[in-house]
Amino acid sequence: MEFGQLLVAVDLTLRRTEDGGRASVIVAEREGDFRPNWSIAVPDPDTVGGAPVLVLNPATLAPGESARAVLLPLYPPFWVDVVVGSRLFMYEGARECGTAEVTEMWTTRKSNDQEGRARARSWVARI
Fold first, then answer.
1. 77: left (phi > 0), else alpha (psi -120 to 50), else beta?
2. What is residue 30's predicted lDDT score, i.e. its pLDDT?
3. pLDDT score recorded for residue 88
4. Maximum distance among all alpha carbons in the chain?
5. SS3 for 32?
6. Which segment of 38-42, 58-62, 102-106, 107-111 scores lowest on mean pLDDT?
7. pLDDT value of residue 104
8. With helix as H, strand as E and coil as C, how does 58-114 read?
9. Whole-angstrom distance between the N-terminal and C-terminal Cα of the chain?
10. What is the pTM of this model?
11. Measured in whole angstroms, how far is the alpha carbon of residue 52 from the centre of its chain?
12. Do 73 and 79 form a contact (C-beta atoms < 8 A)?
């Protein structure tokens, strides 16, 4: 039996380097290239779930900048309390590097659903 894949659309803002964020830009040229961890509702580096960035627009994001992104949660039960409007905190290791607000969520019909991935690409293209 094949299960669907949860996709989470967010407005993502990276912390500025001088505020403790990362020092370099994110370059996400391929789906899933950038693989941060996320905490939900409160910043907590000890309670995070992995969710690679499936698509990012723009594909290059510098500290302090914002972008639209779609996350691909690796363990959907961790995300059960996430709803539209939820605030997420992005981590690389123990360092908080950004925040995101959930703007849309959907589940694809199966884990490798190209229609769901096309919807994700279309969503981030709307600016």
1. alpha
2. 73
3. 97
4. 48
5. coil
6. 107-111
7. 94
8. CCEECCCCEEEEEECCCCHHHHCCCCCCCEEEEEECCEEEEEEEEEEEEECCCCCCH
9. 37
10. 0.84
11. 6
12. yes
- Matching residue, tokens 């996350």: 71
Quick one: 6-125 is in which CATH superfamily? Translation factors (2.40.30.10)
Q: Please say if the pLDDT value at position 67 is more than 70.
A: yes
- Give mean pLDDT, residues 45-58: 88
Neighbouring residues of 116: CB distance < 8 A, sequence distance ≥ 6: 5, 7, 106, 107, 108, 109
pLDDT interval class at 15 (50, 70, 90): very high
Q: Which residues contact 4 (CB under 8 A, 6 or more apart)?
A: 107, 108, 109, 110, 111, 113
Closest CA to 50 of 73, 33, 31, 70: 73
In Å, what is the CA distance from 111 to each residue of 30, 86, 107, 114?
Answer: 18, 24, 9, 9
Distance CA 64, CA 46 (A): 24
